[in-house]
Amino acid sequence: MKKIQELFRKLYSFLSREEKKEADKLLLLIIVMAILDAIGVASIMPFMTIVTDQQTIHSNMLINSIYKYMKFKSSIDFIWFMGVVVLSILLFSLVVKSYTNYKLLRFIANQEYTIGTRLLDKYLTQDYAWHINTNSALLGKNILAEVSAVIGAAMIPMMNLIPHGAITIAIITMLMFTNVELSLMVGFGLGSAYILIYFIIRNHLEDIGKERYVSNSKRFFVVSEAFKAIKAIKIESLEKVFLERFKQPSNKFAKSQSSAQILSLLPRYGMEAIAFGGVIALVFFLIIGKGGLNSSLLGEILPVLGLYTFSAYRIQPALQTVFTGFSAIRYGHDILNNIHKELSVTPEKDKNSLDVDQLIAYKHHIKFHEIYFSYSKGLDYVIENINLQISPGSVLGIVGTTGSGKTTFIDILLGLLRPTKGDIIVDGLMINNKNLSAWQRMLGYVPQEIFLSDASVAENIAFGVPKEKIDFNRVMECARVAKAHDFIVNDLDNKYDSQVGLRGVRISGGQRQRIGIARALYRDPEIIVFDEATSALDSVTEQAVMSEIFSLSPKKTVIIIAHRISTIKDCDQILVFNKGNIVASGVYEDLISSSNDFIELNKAYS
């Protein structure tokens, strides 16, 4: 039971303060519902008593007091009245039960939204280094599949077993006032059977729950890889290979799901037989206890029999729901633990520590002071001893072979990676968590691979801006600078309202690149970083775009990582990276005559 208690605690920890208050109110409503249900069941016995023996109206003190107080003239009228009362009690208890279930369902449905939102928020606020080391397919699976599984396999069963457990306890408690010995026999008989079956299958439920979690992860990984590598799959005819990779975990997932459902329903039909047999045994118990059957005894045992039969009718499905709830929670043990663990992770970048209103003045220089960086403790530095100053309005070019450290250096500049040692200082102000957001708002970034959402051209240029707030004049101005305006108005049917398709599949690579450049310009940043952003452009378009980029100086500071040396020939300063170090720096003319590394790069990329 310790595991069940721990799971309850974890489920409760998912709730916010307001949701916990709402859950407490629901618990109170559940208790009221259970009491009303017990009263509804208990009202059956006095009604059946006066129906089978009208003399009870006069012989029973309580019933006779009601009869006289209401001034009834005949037993038939009183029986009709009692029938209406019993029916009214039952109907009212059903109304309360319906309302309680409605509130429960609303509460549960809202949890899928709130838990999923909190989980996405946790992931988005993790730093860039965390995302580099985490499989995005796993994150998507947790948000879109496992949160739903937690709701279905843990929260819904828990919320179901609470009211049904309360109903069972209330009815058995009510029965105790009728016959303690008989009530204990009914409660123990039904309850012990469910408990025994649960203890037999609980370990198996946990095992198939683990198998379900592992196989579901594998399903998502295969699907994610398949769609990311769709071009290679089509060219090399690998469709069947990926289909086979998907089949095995998908089949295990389906089997574990069906096994859990079968095991949770297993006792249902057996318990119906036990309940029916219990009613027969009850008849014999009452007859034997009274010394044999006669007409007067029949009138005496029928009300008791009716009460216990109706009670069994209400208790058996309630016990089945409680059993199903415990089984589902046991099955969902690993799913729940995983989501609880994910929600418990503290983001590396604490949003509460960020001072988003702090302004950073960039009037004199950006200083990189003895910057070192390693992706993990114990690994070699990929960036070493970087000391550099960048002046406002200058154009800085960065070159180097693949793996030389230039992209890592840019990620540090962008605040995506934090230096292992050293500092970035802007006009005497050290960049840290408190002003990182303010620093990043000053930056524009154009990567080599542009992400485009399945939206219009204008929405992609003004990426992240609500459609109704887009400045279309600004969009067109930035598109002209990026040499994108002409193809947008001449080649696309709906011009700036044209849909680019998922990941920009409806436009060429060069067109995507130009939209990406326009996007970076739209925010009007003080510093613009181009990470091999013109590599997909033809030489004529690249020359035109670079001309526009260089014209941004001295209004903007421009940093360019280039593949072609010709792209950065006119930079104010060129940095040559090799094995994480700046091995040379200067203008093109000086480097081409003095730096062997630069000369070799020029030969390789010319």
Task: Set down the secondary structure blueprint.
Elements: H1 2-13, H2 17-42, H3 44-52, H4 56-59, H5 61-69, H6 75-124, H7 128-132, H8 136-176, H9 180-228, H10 230-235, H11 239-289, H12 295-331, H13 333-344, E1 366-373, E2 383-390, E3 395-400, H14 406-413, E4 421-426, E5 429-430, H15 436-440, E6 443-446, H16 457-461, H17 472-481, H18 485-491, H19 509-522, E7 527-531, H20 539-551, E8 557-561, E9 573-578, E10 581-586, H21 588-594, H22 596-605
Parallel strand pairs: 3-8, 3-9, 6-7, 7-8
Antiparallel strand pairs: 1-2, 1-4, 4-5, 9-10
Helix pairs in contact: 1-13, 2-6, 2-8, 3-6, 3-12, 6-8, 8-9, 8-12, 8-13, 9-11, 9-12, 11-12, 17-19, 21-22
CATH superfamily of the domain at 15-344, please?
ABC transporter type 1, transmembrane domain
Low-confidence stretches: 350-355
Termini gap = 72 Å
Largest sheet: 6 strands, mixed
Q: How large is the radius of gyration? A: 37 Å
**What is the share of helical residues?**
55-70%
Q: Give the neighbour order of strands across the main sheet.
A: 6-7-8-3-9-10
What is the helix tally? Answer: 22
The CATH topology of the domain at 15-344 comes to ABC transporter transmembrane region fold
> What global shape is seen?
elongated
What's the mean pLDDT score?
Answer: 77
